[in-house]
Structures are given as C-alpha cells and as structure tokens.
Design a protein that fits this description.
Distance between the termini: 37 Å
Structural class: mainly beta
Number of helices: 0
Shape: globular
Order of helices and strands: EEEEEEEEEEE
Largest sheet: 7 strands, mixed
Helix content: under 10%
Number of strands: 11
Radius of gyration: 13 Å
C-alpha cells in the first residue's frame, strides 16, 4: 500500500516558483510530523523542510532557508512545499515523509515515504 502520494513536480526555469503537495492516504495525519527531503543524482538524501503535528512548528534546511515554505492542511491530510527563486541546484527528486520521532530534520525519524516527484530547474 502507498501511504503518501506526492504531486506537483515538473520542469521549471531558474527563478521560477513551484509548489509540491503530498497527501497521506493511510496514516493518522493529524499526529504525524511531515517533511520533505530531496535527492539529486549521485548525492545523499537532503533535508528540505519539516512541520510538526503538535503546533505546526517549521524547520528548514540551510540550502533552502528563505526560499521555501512548508504548510499543512489537516482537513485534507495534505502537506505542501512552496518553493521560490528556484536554482539549478534545486534539481532533485523530492520525497514526502511522515513520522513521529525527533529530531524532525533526520530521515531516520520518518517511517513512511512517498515515491518521490521530480523537480528539474533549467538555468
């Protein structure tokens, strides 16, 4: 079964904006911390952003700080990632993750993962 389904990836130009969404079809979304990670070819998986379930606190990776916003809608079981001022180095497969462990910046804190959506930024 697929717990998380991402959408919204695509090909954009440098400087453009793009929004991703991730819907949780199985887990109890309201008590899950949600996060986005990304992985570029030949590189390690990188933390992008996270939002906690308890008070919707947000956390961002250094490479995207100030350019991305994570949000969640518990009525739709959906988490969003809005990215502005995209750069070629943002090109990667973006993965949605759900979990209840801490710290929220570590991939090991998440037990469910989506299949990923490709974001390609052309310069």
């Amino acid at each position: 079964q697929v717990d998380l389904v991402e959408s919204g990836g695509g090909l954009v130009q440098a400087g453009d904006s793009l929004s991703l969404s991730c819907t949780n079809f199985v887990r109890l979304f309201a008590i899950d911390n949600m996060a986005w990670f990304r992985q570029a070819p030949g590189k390690e998986r990188e933390f992008v952003a996270a939002i906690t379930w308890r008070d919707s606190s947000t956390f961002y990776g250094d490479s995207v700080q100030g350019r991305v916003t994570i949000s969640r809608d518990n009525t739709k079981n959906t988490v969003y990632l809005h990215m502005d001022s995209l750069k070629s180095e943002d090109t990667a497969v973006y993965y949605c993750a759900a979990g209840r462990a801490f710290p929220v910046t570590l991939s090991s804190s998440y037990s469910s993962w989506g299949q990923g959506t490709q974001v390609t930024v052309s310069s």
